[in-house]
Amino acid sequence: MPAPPYEKSVFINCPFDTAFEPLFHAIVLTVTALDFVPRCARETEGEADPRIFRIAKGLLQSKYSIHDLSRYQGEGAENLARFNMPLELGMALCIRYLGDTEQRVPGHKHNWLALVPPNFTHQRVISDLAGYDAPDHDQQPVTIIRRVASWLMKQPDYAEPVPTARAVFEAYPRFRERLEQKREEALGDLTWPAILNCADEVVAGMVL
Amino acid sequence: MMVYISHSRQNSSAAFLLRDALQKRGLEPWLDLVDVTPGTDWNQGVADAIRKADGFVFLLGPSGPEDRGQNYEWQQILENQYDADRVKAMIPVVVGEVEMPGFLKTRRILSAPPADFEAVADEVVKGLKSPAETIDQEKIEKGREERVRSMKRLRDYAQELEKKEDARRRLSGLE
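Predict the joint structure of the above. Result:
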């Protein structure tokens, strides 16, 4: 199966749980509306390779990646924090800076966006990001759409015409509604291809 | 009319020349190097000026690998569009070899030979008065055609993934 073009692929690295789902969907819709292709670990679900290999492969096939670092708190009875997001951001950084060395992969100039919680609290747990103006968000889809859209617009592979960020936010409830319909039709199972199909359908109906 | 000058730190001298040329034409150019009061928060000063500006000039030239200040300015300008109730002109002025950011690729690009900012300033004045004319419609049309092709690519890709998913389900006995 041919992968989507490298320079249009945006690998999304965020929690896939129910609580984050509205924000994940906001990222997917924004990326699609701005004429990029959303990619994530979910597209290789069910493959035999270990998850970390599948993520590495997806990152290498994507010129861009988005990493949500807003969940750094401990969770559950044992108050443990999840380390997946920083680990995968580290992988993206490695691809990015390898691109500036003699060992670079030809044509690769990976660029990444880290989304962080407000008030610079992330600097207490990932202080190495100090000096990088990471856009923050308040767990609201509208903020995510604004941050992701603005970042994508700065990239050299962004091409107009595309809908405005405001139009993306206005289309977001319709997207969520379609996803719920798909989920019901599939008896509760919302697959990654179904998410892409809904995004495509909603974006196709947007005015440029 | 207030015009915000966005520039990389390596193009500061060109930014001053452009500022002078715009001022001569009765505009109010805003340049951080002059207009952020020492001792105040640079980020806040920039964000406030961007909100008030009637238009933007992007001075683009060779810059360091990651110009943090310019990156912040661009993020603010683009995010501000969300709340803007009118289209503001965005005019790229190129002073050397540069990789154009995506959001400026469909704009009419002005080139400034070294130290000649007078002609550029005249064009900036025109652009600020008619923001729609700063957009290159030919490039927009080409982009529209490309978008049709890329939407088809996405659709094909989703279909391929769907087929793969169906095959996996059949193998695992889910269907």
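The mean pLDDT of chain A is 91.
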